[in-house]
What we know:
The first copy, chain A, is α/β, with parallel strands linked by helices. Helix content of chain A is 39%, strand content 21%. The interface between A and B is large, with 65 and 65 residues.
Amino acid sequence: MAHRIAVIAGDGIGTEVMPEGIRALEAAAKRFNIDLAFTTFEFGSCDYYLEHGKMLPDDWFEQLKDFDALFYGAVGWPDKVPDHISLWGSLLQFRRQFDQYINLRPCKLMPGIKSPLAGREPGDIDFYVVRENTEGEYSSVGGKMFEGTEREIVLQETVMSRVGVDRVLKYAFDLAQTRPRKKLTSATKSNGISITMPYWDERVAEMAKQYPDIAVDKFHIDILTANFVLHPDWFDVVVGSNLFGDILSDLGPACTGTIGIAPSANINPEGMFPSLFEPVHGSAPDIAGKGIANPIGQIWSGAMMLEHLGYQEAADTMVKAIEDVLSEGNSQVLTRDIGGLGNTLSLGHAIAERI
Amino acid sequence: MAHRIAVIAGDGIGTEVMPEGIRALEAAAKRFNIDLAFTTFEFGSCDYYLEHGKMLPDDWFEQLKDFDALFYGAVGWPDKVPDHISLWGSLLQFRRQFDQYINLRPCKLMPGIKSPLAGREPGDIDFYVVRENTEGEYSSVGGKMFEGTEREIVLQETVMSRVGVDRVLKYAFDLAQTRPRKKLTSATKSNGISITMPYWDERVAEMAKQYPDIAVDKFHIDILTANFVLHPDWFDVVVGSNLFGDILSDLGPACTGTIGIAPSANINPEGMFPSLFEPVHGSAPDIAGKGIANPIGQIWSGAMMLEHLGYQEAADTMVKAIEDVLSEGNSQVLTRDIGGLGNTLSLGHAIAERI
Ligand SMILES: CC(C)[C@H](C(=O)O)[C@@H](O)C(=O)O
Ligand SMILES: CC(C)[C@H](C(=O)O)[C@@H](O)C(=O)O
């Protein structure tokens, strides 16, 4: 039986890196005898919005819900559509409606990539950020009062539920158990954000009782970002709310020098709905259309998708191919952001061949 | 007329670095003929809480409101009192009741201090974080429902007012105007936090019209933290909400290697109430009682206090003294966190003598 993959390339460099993601996946599928069937969708882009006045057709849920996974590029083009409209109209809908309550992002210093941190080598930085992906600070509850006057006031509710907090914590603890160091760090801000964050801490303490083998610590988000820079080697699995996870999963890849190549998975662990796999980088209007975007984030996200579908060996092979091509450091092949003279195509082809 | 300074040392290393802060201030006062009168208060510490069941006496506002400034150490000792109680019972009360709506924190790579970022030298990193300090994500509005059950839900309101947003933006734009690069960066997250943050962006755009000479840009907080690490030289004045400013003003000093020595000012610009000057570091229970804490954050905060009181030359002299002692790099003098063999006293004395 074929695995049905919905492909949404989105905007900007999303449309440029997507073909390389598919090329690599097809190479892995061939080698490991996996049957992947790709279906491409045009919606979920700002151009679609300009034509239709919305980011997605009304029946998007029906159209997508029976796919085995969504393979996603990048969305957003602020000059065409304000970000909060394009994102809340697409990506954030998928995450919420398909209950992809885990956002998983590896932060790994790869061979051949220079960390902006002094003296850090591959092996020194290797952790996961597990982000709550459906509630918390990203809420749609709130509004304005006394609009347009001096007394104007704007409210937005952060919403945490026991169900929502516990399930992401459980996922993070379970993940920590599969790792050699068995360490979990919780991101909090309970000294300043005095209602939701102490609650988060309580649930972490409660969940920790069920995992006596996991070493648990917590940091307030301010000093935690500092420690990502000062002591990236401290971390193994880091779990945070929607906003804190968002911040940490950009900062972490930045510390590994890989903001342009980091992957992510938006997972519905129960498999009730399709999970979504996308690079961490955005649509990058500044370099879009030049063919120079780095396709590794898309390819690596494809590897996370194969892992999710149960093909661990194929996934490992894809990541290994990325590492090998990076190690070799052939400047004709590598894109400019990582010191090469090549482009999206040259790097995508090299990785696909290696697979 | 003497300037009346209220001294609250607080907890942990706060009590150890405070005497060195005062020593340096007295040296500067002597040299520049400034009349400073210090009054010490015992409240605002966790020990006070254990004795009195509250962090502050009921009449703290009356007792403190006529001082010219508050010189503050550090508060918090989680093993004695939960952080959200000790902080909301003291520091956060001062900030809010004394309407210290600006939190100003310099991020400057100092001579003799090693940045954790590869290849960065003094001069490369030199910016200010301006943080909104009274509203936003640090709100006291919210609560729980279905407590203790599976359906438990916890809400906390982020509150932004036009008055609150505009006044911090105005301060930040004014500050940018005094700087050679005249550049302002706004921290946002309007793509995900869809009500308050687009409002913040709107107010920035509105205020920018009044400052045509200032170059304004904005970044979402996730990529902004990444850019602090990747491109710290891009920044001049960075303005953010209460939470975003909190994060950036720990991360910024971390990038300059000075998380233990960074100062901060909590300012009521109109001078209706006293402003408060404190090091960025906390009470550091892990090293408290050993006499090894670095006093530079406290001394540098003292310099910011003198600047606020109108003594620019004295403030500059204090900062220069810190820089000189750091440049010399005498290991007998420097504390261990910056590679020396000395302690709080040796470093404090050396700086005071230099002044
Ligand atoms: C201690 C804490 C409440 C405080 C804050 O978050 O404001 C601190 O981190 C700071 O930056 O002054
Ligand atoms: C584009 C934006 C809404 C999104 C987020 O904040 O979740 C992005 O930053 C991410 O991390 O996937």
